[in-house]
Design a protein that fits this description.
Blueprint: H1 20-29, E1 33-38, E2 41-47, H2 56-70, E3 78-80, H3 85-88, H4 90-99, E4 102-104, H5 115-119, H6 121-128, H7 136-149
Parallel strand pairs: 3-4
Antiparallel strand pairs: 1-2
Helix pairs in contact: 2-4
Length: 151
Amino acid sequence: MSSLINKDKKRSGRPREVDRAAVVNAAEAHPSMTMWWGRRGPIFWELLEQGKTVNSDVYCEQLEKTRRTLRNRRIPVIFLDDNAKPYRSRQTRQKIADLGWETLDHPPYSPDMAPSDFYLFRSLEHWLKGKKFRTIEEMRQSLTEFFDSKD
């Protein structure tokens, strides 16, 4: 019995060494988007400026924007988020309490409770395929068109 060894192909997967500066630069080069979901679909989304991350201050601002979006619906809010640090800070917990929202703990390792994974990423990937944006405002406009087309 013989085996074939192909030494020409590089192995895919995790690299042996990580260039941390390259990872940080790549992360800062692209804006990120946050999405807030309700039972019937997206409620609020925001495209963060390049290099901006979600910390407790940003998260509390987004909670307030989400509250304003929900203001006219007059339905009780049961709030579920994952266990990331900005979502668990004292400031964030106080903001949620001030809003009067009931909270539901997110079970660990529960990808089935991340609606973006199931309802957003594939269709958004198709929408963005081949598009190039010169500015963050162009990207924001395209995302607005995408979400408006889903209503």
